[in-house]
Structure formats: C-alpha cells, structure tokens
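INFO  loader      accepted 1 record
INFO  loader      residues=212
INFO  predictor   begin
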Amino acid sequence: MELYTVLTADVITSRTQEAVVAAKKTKLQEISDANLITPFTFSRGDEIQAVLYGALSSPALLRKLRYHCLPLQLRIGIGIGRITSGLGATSSWEMNGPAFHRARQALDELKQNRHWRTRLVSGDPGLDHIINTMFTLYDVNQSRWTLPQWEGVMLYEEAGTYQEAASRLGVAFQNVEKRCRAARWWALRETEAAFPIILAQYADLNLILGED
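INFO  predictor   done
INFO  writer      dumping tokens
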C-alpha cells in the first residue's frame, strides 16, 4: 500500500481578511515540491489543501506555504496514511481516505489549543508525540519572524549566499545575515534536516497504514 501526506490548513480570522484571502489564491500556485500530487488550492472559503506522495519530508514546505500566505496566519493539519478513493483527480477535494481523515483530526485539535499552529496525526501515537513537540518549538520561533526576516531567510535559502540574496533585496549582505541571525534560522534549519531522520527511525508503518 502506498503512503500519502495530506496538508489541510485554515486561515485564522479569515472573515476579517476576505480580500487578502482572495488575492492569495493564485499566489499558492507558485509553491512547488517534487512530491506534490495536487497543488495548494483554496476550497470551503478559507481552507487550503494539497496532497503529497509519501511522508512529508521536511517542514520546509510548510514554511513556503506560510510565506506565500503572509500576512495571513495559518493553522496546518497534517495527515499521513492511505488514500482510498479519488487518486488521479486534479483536485484534492475529490479524494478521500485515512490520510484526509487524519489531516482533519489534526486541524480540529489545533482549534482546541490557540498556542498550536501545526499538528500531525499519522496513526502512530509515539511518532505524533515526537513530531508535534518539535513543531511546537519550531512554530514558536517562527511566529516571531518579522516580514524582513521572512524575506531574508527565504531569499538566502533560494539564492545560496548572503551576497546574492542581498542583491535581490537591494540591501547590504550584512543586512541579510543580520535578518537570518535574528530569525534563529540556523536552529530551524537543523530542525528541518532532522525531520526525515525522525520519520525514518521512529515511524511504525504498520500503524500508519493500518485501518482507521
């Protein structure tokens, strides 16, 4: 049986930001990932969803989603498991299966705790506890980023050097370095690198692929 990841996000206080939500609908098409089966799309008004092949390999994709949605703030529910119907459809909203049910459960859990911004439900409670503890610390750090820090981190990652990122931003390279340092980017980068190792070592695939 194949493993999939469903990402379902909702916009916090979306009713007061309807114009911004509408403007972001085409912006989401710029997000790419080698494992994306369906692109990030809005549905149900303020919900965003995408499907990936395999287990989510890094929080970096979540970081891209949050960046492209700024200044909107998101809660992101992650479900890992099987997809039992709708595979091959152009829209994730036409699919179904345990991975979707778990993403919905994760999103419901997020709505019960205002401090959480990301939640994983995989069917493996031990793995979920490890990953969700990591997400809590990751999100607390990221929630403090200013827009210049977001731009500095994202452009530095894309460009590969402070000098190239600074050239694109039209600032001195020391300015980009300062932004990344203030964002504690080095710590989040280590967390992202550890993510696939944790999944590989601690995930019980028998639980994840089991029946809900």
